[in-house]
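During the second half of the funding period, the structural biology subgroup turned its attention to how the target accommodates small molecules. The most pressing case was FE2/S2 (inorganic) cluster, which had performed well in the primary screen but for which no bound structure existed. We therefore specified the complex as follows and requested a full 3D prediction, including the ligand pose.
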Amino acid sequence: MESLKDKVLIPQEELSKPNDLTVLKNFWYGIEHSSNVSIKPKTISFMGHDLVLYRGSEGQIIALDGRCVHRGTELAAGWVEGNCIHCPYHGWRYEANGTCSHIPANQLGASIPIRAKLRSYKVQEKYDLVWLFWGDLPVEDCPEIPPLNEFQQKGWRSVQGEFTWDGHYTRVIANTIDMAHAPFVHASAFGRKEAPAVPSYKLEAGEWSGSGFINFDTKPAYSLKLILGTDHPSGVFRATFYMPNITRVDLQFGKFQFVLFLLHIPVNATKTITKWLHIRNFVTTPLADYFMRRDVVKTFVQDNEAVKIQAGAAPYDLTTDIHAPSDALELAYRKFFNRAAEMGWIS
Ligand code: FES
Ligand SMILES: [Fe+2]
């Protein structure tokens, strides 16, 4: 068994290297759909940290550490009054800033320990999603939430959902921007096994983002097969990532377009939850929503079969595994990850 002495002997540079439990800090993390947050508190598991989310008296979202500082009870099992949350075990009351303001078992005049305080987190809502700031720098000095111009634009319709993956979030992110797997992983749907070569693509890098697109011959599946029929225009596939946990997939077939905007939440080293938006500019009737949702889930089920048999997190040392030209976009994500880690933006 590892002793305390062994732990102390781990060199500092090793301790500051990313590992399977690392998440980047000083970013806004998309963590939930707005419609899933109410006055009924809810636990969000974020790489081993439990957070609690609920709405206060003005409808604002409050985010605190999700475990009571008294005995570690899950606060989401408690109740909300105004902006405060009460622990279900001994009724301790926490204010929106995380301060404990009442201990029911205390006699009149007994003081509340100064350390009886939960960490509180900055939160904002955008695109009907909840964004939580995970970091210790002023938010003004940190990257902003990425754009999503199609959201609620005339002629576009959104559906939302979530999907649970059996894999590390870096693998899930890589999968959703991967240009080369469709002919194999999606062979039974839109993947064309007879044409696996990936055209070379130009990498477009932003401050904390990367994107690339390819033209390809389509093999529409699922709902797109019904919509496009036998007259398949060639397609454009664009994949984009935004640090730290967002990817976006754009597919365009002639005038038909859809966007998948994906928030990948690191739950723990082997589990990731993706909260997704699917935004389309065709068959915008709500009656088609069911089919859009079904198509997204079917596709992720196929992807998960590959992700769950990968080993651990994507290595931060880029020389550990071998790369092909088609991997340029994923490599860019890993380089951005390492850049943030070298800046000390890891927790
Ligand atoms: S465990 Fe929360 S009040 Fe005691
Ligand atoms: Fe896929």
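Two results from this model are relevant to the next phase. The chain has a mean pLDDT of 94. The two ends are 25 Å apart (CA to CA).
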